[in-house]
Design a protein that fits this description.
about 375 residues, Neuraminidase, mainly beta, 5-stranded antiparallel sheet, 5-stranded mixed sheet
């Protein structure tokens, strides 16, 4: 995997250099917390609709490489603008894929920095870096690529076991007698800890990229980056706590090597994409889709940084703003922005060039 990491970083770096040379502009991150005067007035005037979610904190990890770890930093948000300094720091052993629910509970994956090392699911108390519990998933052979999301204490973990297809597992803590699949996701209940049994487990097909970001919509359906559609698409699962069922799939030319999907809770999903197949591990824009889509779908809109930029990260949104883990910076846009745009605000992050940061939002 080490060679893959370096090739990925070099590919993104080469593409960034090429983009800079085309327009003669530097790709250095804009100043921390920049925001236009018009955008500030517009943001301050915007009312928060009842029942709508507007994030109060931005969570950032600089662990852009596969299986590398970094602390998650929490930054207060004011009208979408992140503070220049974090107000809370989580452990440095967390992988790049993590999630925060609407109660401020952080769900992370702890790993020793190697694709063959065991990992644990860590759940932190709401609005605190105090660890609430640890879940130890069954790991027969080689730990694969993992992603996580959570809600109300339930943890949803996607996985890929490189050697575990149909591998018998011991009867521990009442868990099923055999592993359900080599690729898929498991659901853990709000009191699960230690070697606790999962509530459900199902096979799924998703891009085997180095990190994966999965997401829940307002109805509790799970959105999973899918590899079953020639490397592009999003699969949607329902009945998660009992018998997870694939209910629909979104495909189309605008999906390419999909590794990240985020639902904003109000009917839209956000998926990073690229127009350059040769640079498919790097992303240049974020596409917005209706989360009710089925079959071949087209984006409602796309937005990209006004300066040419490629990156490998994720994107999340609330009812007002879109937060993108760009190249060594977080980019903040109005969620309705489209086309080539300068961000409303930025936050510089010491992440590897072209490889991060990754982001989440919470109350």
């Amino acid at each position: 995997m080490m060679w893959h990491r370096h090739l990925l970083a070099l590919g993104c770096l080469f593409a960034l250099t090429a983009c800079a040379s085309r327009d003669g502009s530097s790709l250095a991150p804009p100043v921390d917390g920049t925001l236009s005067a018009n955008a500030m007035v517009s943001s301050m005037a915007a009312a928060r609709s009842p029942g709508k979610f507007v994030a109060g904190h931005l969570y950032v990890s600089a662990a852009g490489y596969p299986f590398e770890t970094a602390p998650v930093m929490r930054y207060p948000l004011v009208n979408g603008v992140p503070a220049s300094q974090p107000d809370l720091v989580y452990p440095s052993t967390l992988l790049a894929s993590f999630s925060v629910d609407r109660q401020g509970r952080l769900y992370g994956i702890d790993q020793a920095g190697s694709p063959s090392a065991p990992f644990n699911v860590l759940v932190f108390a709401p609005n605190s870096n105090k660890q609430e519990r640890t879940i130890v998933p069954y790991q027969p052979y080689n730990t694969g690529y993992v992603g996580i999301t959570g809600r109300d204490g339930y943890a949803y973990v996607s996985f890929f076991w490189s050697s575990s297809l149909n591998t018998p597992r011991p009867a521990d803590a009442g868990s099923p007698s055999s592993f359900c699949a080599a690729t898929g996701f498991v659901v853990y209940g709000p009191r699960a800890q230690g070697s606790a049994p999962w509530k459900s487990c199902t096979a799924a097909t998703y891009i085997l990229s180095e990190n994966n970001w999965i997401s829940l919509d307002a109805s509790g359906n799970l959105y999973v980056p899918a590899a079953s559609h020639l490397g592009s698409g999003v699969d949607v699962y329902a009945n998660l706590a009992t018998q997870p069922t694939l209910v629909r799939s979104m495909t189309g030319k605008s999906f390419r090597n999909t590794h990240s999907v985020a639902d904003d809770g109000s009917g839209y999903i956000y998926v990073p994409g690229t127009v350059k197949p040769a640079k498919e591990l790097c992303y240049s824009y974020v596409a917005t889709y209706l989360d009710s889509g089925n079959g071949s779908v087209a984006p409602v809109r796309t937005v990209r940084y006004a300066k040419p930029q490629l990156w490998y990260g994720n994107a999340v949104a609330d009812d007002r703003y879109l937060y993108i883990g760009g190249n060594q910076q977080v980019l903040v846009y109005d969620k309705t922005a489209q086309g080539a745009r300068m961000p409303l605000a930025t936050l510089a992050v010491s992440a590897p060039v072209g490889m991060g940061p990754t982001v989440a939002i919470g109350p």
